[in-house]
Amino acid sequence: MNFLNALNGKDVWPPPLWLMRQAGRYLPEYRATRAKAGDFLSLCLNPALAEDVTLQPIRKFGFDAAILFSDILILPMALGQGLRFAEGEGPRMPPLESLAGLKPDNAPGIYAPVIETVSRLRGSLPKDTALIGFAGGPTTVACYMLDGQGGGFPRTRRLAYERPEFVKQVLNILTETTIEYLSAQVKAGADCVMLFESWAGIFPPGQFRAFVIEPNRRICKALKKRHEGLKIIGFPRLAGLMLGEYARDAGVDAIGLDSVTDIKAARAACPAGTVFQGNLDPLLLKLGGKAMEEAVEALLADVRGYPHIFNLGHGITPDVPEAHVARLVELVRQGG
Ligand code: 1CP
Known about the structure:
Elements: H1 2-7, H2 28-37, H3 40-44, H4 47-61, E1 65-67, H5 74-78, E2 84-86, E3 90-92, H6 107-124, E4 130-136, H7 138-147, H8 154-162, H9 164-188, E5 192-197, H10 205-226, E6 231-236, H11 243-249, E7 254-257, H12 263-269, E8 275-278, H13 282-287, H14 289-303, E9 308-309, H15 322-334
Bound molecules: coproporphyrinogen I.
């Protein structure tokens, strides 16, 4: 399998390809299934429909990997924190005030439909398509739990200084439950897992070490002990100069690279042989045309000779024309 070969550090050419948020609103068939489900959370918790939307981009574009259709906020919801998706505004939760409301013992029963989606996908995916399980990184999930919504996370930032013990307790609960959650996904058939630390970059270095690297390290260590040979992709978005330390210490096998980091600088900062995934600016997929074609050629030239998984530096936006995705796939399959 090309995707797993690249993840294992082999130089595969052309590089395997998938896109973050490849199942989503830019696809008419996704919009139809979502309408059938009623709302986004019902879609995440309906195994037959979640299986179908996971497969939609595979059927259409033949990507090398499918990512389980779910959301990083299913875990806090399963822990007992209220969650709703306000139409057109993104996630909303009551900002977490204490640990008292969190019920880790109940979580597996509540996220069970997500695990069932993984099992179903194991049976329905083409044999040469890898299945990626995922969870939010503890710090990114804690940001949403403590602030109750996206957008800078001012309360989380303040609490990290004023009540670091509280923040650490939240991170501990998330670290432990994330290990169980990802382990259940692997047992159900995920070929590898990805940790989305999308907001890693909002913390200064000391907090980055304590809140991002350390919980990620504990998760990787525990998962690898339970599942021999398991590969883990970390996505410490906007880590900047902390990227090298993350790559060295967090225990991940591959780094999801945002699009503001120069890939040559990232390679120089990380241990030799680090596998990278991503780096293409998602805006290019919306723009298409010459801008996209030149950037794809340039990235292909940059990664030639290195193990690389072709992807964006962040998720596809709903305004991307499908034809641009088709053209991107064609360009990558040609290998530049
Ligand atoms: O249909 C809709 O309107 C909902 C849009 C949507 C989708 C398609 C949300 C709401 N989540 C998802 C799916 C999703 N989210 C996947 C599925 C797999 C895929 O195809 O890639 C994954 C892996 C995620 C992960 C996720 N959710 C992250 C980490 C990655 C990232 O984008 O940084 C984050 C931060 C979330 C929170 C979230 N969920 C949804 C939205 C709009 C957001 C972001 C809110 C914000 O900007 O703060």
